[in-house]
Predict the 3D structure of the following.
Amino acid sequence: MHRRAGFASSGLFAALLALVLTALSPVALATSSASPSPAAAAAAPKGVPIVLGVIPDPTGQRTKWSGDLINVNLDLNGAVLDAGASTVTVNGEQITLSTPASLVYLAPANPTLQMLWNDPKFAKGEFTFEISLVSEKGAPLQIYDAANNKVVDKYSWTFKSAGEASGGSLINFDVMKTWFWYIAAGSIVTVELTIISIALACLFALFGSLGRLSKKMTFKQAWDRYQSREYMFRMVLGRIPYWIATFYTSLFRGTPLLLQIFVIYQGAPEVIKAFGLPDTYNPPAFWSGVAALSLNYGAYLTEVFRAGIQAVPKGQNEAAWAIGLSGWQTQRRIVLPQALKIVIPAVGNDFIALIKDTSLVSVITVEELLRRAQLAGSASLNNFSTLLVAAAFYWALTIFFSFWQAKLETRMARDKAREKEKGKK
Amino acid sequence: MAKSTSTPSYDSEGRELIVKVEGLQKYFGKNHVLKGIDLEVFKGEVVVLIGPSGSGKSTFLRCLNFLEDPTTGEIGIGGVHVTCGSRGGGFKRAVHEIRMKCGMVFQEFNLFPHKDVTENVTEGPILVKREKKEAAIKKAQALLTKVGLAERMDYFPSQLSGGQKQRVAIARAMAMDPVLMLFDEPTSALDPELIGEVLKVMKDLAAQGMTMIVVSHEMGFSREAADRVVYMDDGYFIEQGPPSEVFFHPQDDRTKRFLRHILPEKEPEHAKELGIVAVDQELPDPDAVPLQGPAGDALNEDNLADTAIPKIPLSDGPMGEAPLPPGDEKL
């Protein structure tokens, strides 16, 4: 008994808790590497964008460039940028971009001006880039050069390329290497989503299953037996949890998870507006995702828990009642602990499934694994490589958690084996 | 409707009335299982219920502490009185009080597998009677010593034999200080060599003056410990009296027929004395479900007498006019 509790708290549980705690602010990780130094932000006049980093990066480790992508990572510092009107010159010659320059947000507070060019003949040699920014009103914007601590009209840098990066190949290890840690940080959000959602889902499922099991007899049976209006009235009140639980499981098992995510994220502000509340409210994407995932999985787990409770022999209830335990005491002290043991494999199974279903919340801008892989894919123009990285992470996560699930189940099986052996005395 | 009566009745010997049941009836849907049962049990009395399978013995016992909800009738136990069939205000409260006054021992033990022996015994006193944990454990220790399991206190039920489990179950029921103990076939699920240890504990209890109602076909126990044996059939109490009367001088035909089956198996010596010929040593327990389905198909008239026991009660002869099992109708 104690050994089992110790195992749960010290090993898996502590590790997961630590994971959640370290990762509770997913945004912090993404921005920390590129956040402006306070000195630079202080030195830059208001409204002058600060350059935080560039690609191709003259200071970094990479020496190859495929001539396709130019990124300028900015702290807008209050400026409003017309990205499409901004221009770039290479070696003094204004180039024609394959798509208009645009601002992408690789992390929420981390806008990057992205310019796609696609001219491989420039892949080798020394390049001097010069960008000029234009404000929304059409006026040229000054730029703060943090490295040299001065305000300039045009920001320029030089990159010496050793040749074409392997941008053309399908599986691009350079792209994978470049974006690896960016995508890796998304896996923390994925794990967070999974653990918080499964915990809430179990809570919903507990109440849902008790509601589903609260129906003892039909109205007709009760009327035939007691013929009492007062009893029937109390029975109607007592039936409400059953109705709520039935409605809940029916609704959330009967509609697609993706739709539920959209309804909660996009529908909620409209509902709030309809009730006359401040219409500036936007639900946080992360918690909208948690709500949708936990409600959906809670509905499925409700049926799992119900089956688990029903699998506890009826004699256990009777023995508890016979020594005077109340209905609630019987559930809490006798039935639920035994039901828990029965449902653990099924819950573990749903946990593994949930890890992968968290990818659905990428559609509401939650930056978990898949979303980050997509962003990295569009930034690097090699979706296949970045998606492969994400796939590897999902796979690794499921293997990791399956391992613990198997371990947990083995413990259960071992107990059963012991029971069998000793039962024969 | 429930009311507590503070004035207990007494019998001629001045013993307190513990159980008073009047007109108890129970339906399962349209199935009429108990057809009006009256019973009075006085303090210290041991009543043994016998009867064929399906006669309502277990149902009657389970009605007494409301594990089954009786359809109509009156039940009074230890001064708590309940009129069944309605759900008036005090019903739940009265049922709770009655359950606290009854200890129940089940055929399948129903120990809590996730709790060790001590926790099994102290669960009721701590949760229901709000006893202090130390006091409850001390009491559990005393009770477990009584049933001979003092050194098994930290074992889990899965580590005990059937007989040990049943003795823990008896200790668990006794921990609530009941005025009445109900035993629902306490030895039926036990291997033959383990029955004795459970019966011994029950005899000890009876000797200490515990009021008991026992559903059991253990003749030895009945003869030694029972004050009264009740033969039950088809939802009625057919016959009751001291064990020697009911077992060896039954008045009713149905009792005779039933005992003709059960005596040779349980009490071969007495059966011989009474001139009851063993019907067949291979007879399954009368409580066994009649064979049906594929097993029945395999039967023919030649080996029918050896293997299949159709529904009891039988007609006059030991095996005469027995209805054929379903599979044999076409033969």
